[in-house]
TrEMBL record:
It is a multi-pass membrane protein. The lineage of its organism: Archaea, Methanobacteriati, Methanobacteriota, Stenosarchaea group, Halobacteria. CDD domains: TM_PBP2. Keywords: Cell membrane, Membrane, Transmembrane, Transmembrane helix, Transport. It comes from Halobiforma nitratireducens JCM 10879. The chain crosses the membrane at residues 24-45, 87-109, 121-144, 150-174, 270-292. One of its GO terms (cellular component) is plasma membrane. Residues 83-288 form the ABC transmembrane type-1 domain. This is Phosphate transport system permease protein PstA.
Length: 306
């Protein structure tokens, strides 16, 4: 009887229509993926073309461009001060965000009780990862730059970028910690290790590939952000090298933003060259994320012993 009912059910289902829907859905995904890839290639090709034209037309000195400071005269403008400011920003942002994010993730996974409040916190963390970056810039402008009197310095920009990427790193760390098999924890407890020893010497080393990958990808997003830095009050002309966290600055994205709005076409060429430099930084960060992930996965057995 059951076999007869199953055959009647299969007969009622229009398999031809289902296959057609599957093919249409698959084709839509392929078209969307190809469209995004083609647009990316066209954008990169356009930037490279503009940079090549600028080098040949305006006879730009690459050495001066990479080491000089910005200027109101296109012939003397350089990108070096902005590069150094971005390096300062990334270093401070990484320090501010990494330890806070990993600590929060460890607490939520290992110590927080499994209840509605914990689930609500995790859901809100995922939502915070999608908040527009300008919101964090406005928050830092109000609380840190103005109320605390810190001013428009590199540290204020780093705080804004750290607030931006902390939720991303927390989510990545939570998923990485939960991916560690429970048998690994049980083995550590069986050998007499305490909970903190197990987390520090077993769980975190096992989860480190995912944590590092999430952190570096989050920093790769932060290095290209313009809106929060403008809100913080970054300079539009990096006329001097930053000497520390309390120096005024103009990062790579804000300097490119300023050059694109200049009437002189040579500034537009400098902006294209700046975009190429920024893209090289992004590629280097993605490569570093892949290298560190592979290295930790290779050395995993030797570093995770209790």
């Amino acid at each position: 009887m059951s076999t007869k009912r199953e055959s009647n059910f299969l007969a009622d289902v229009d398999l031809t229509r289902e296959k057609l829907v599957n093919r249409l859905f698959y084709g839509t995904l392929v078209v969307a993926s190809v469209f995004g890839l083609v647009m990316l290639v066209l954008l990169i090709a356009d930037v490279l073309w503009e940079a090549t034209q600028a080098l040949s037309t305006f006879d730009i000195d690459i050495g001066n461009f990479l080491t000089g400071t910005s200027s109101s005269r296109a012939e003397q403008a350089g990108f070096g001060a902005s590069i150094l400011a971005s390096l300062w920003l990334m270093a401070l942002t990484a320090v501010l965000a990494f330890f806070i994010a990993v600590g929060c993730a460890v607490y939520l996974v290992e110590y927080a009780p499994e209840n509605r409040t914990t689930r609500l916190i995790e859901a809100n963390l995922a939502n915070l990862a999608g908040v527009p970056s300008i919101v964090y810039g406005l928050l830092v402008l109000a609380l840190i730059v103005n109320d605390a009197g810190l001013g428009s310095v590199i540290l204020a920009g780093a705080i804004a970028l750290a607030l931006l990427i902390v939720p991303i790193i927390i989510v990545a760390t939570i998923e990485s910690i939960r991916a560690v098999p429970s048998s690994v924890r049980d083995g550590s407890y069986a050998m007499g290790a305490t909970k903190w020893q197990t987390i520090r010497r077993v769980v975190l080393p096992q989860a480190m590939p995912g944590i590092l990958t999430g952190t570096i990808l989050a920093l790769a997003r932060a290095i290209g952000e313009t809106a929060p830095l403008i809100m913080v009050g970054t300079m539009l002309h990096a006329t001097r090298y930053p000497s520390g966290p309390l120096s005024s600055f103009s990062a790579m994205p804000t300097q490119i933003y300023n050059w694109t709005y200049q009437a002189d076409r040579m500034f537009n060429g400098l902006a294209a060259l700046g975009i190429v430099v920024l893209l090289l930084f992004l590629v280097a960060m993605y490569a570093l994320a892949g290298y560190l992930r592979n290295r930790y996965e290779t050395d995993d057995g030797s570093i995770s012993n209790v």
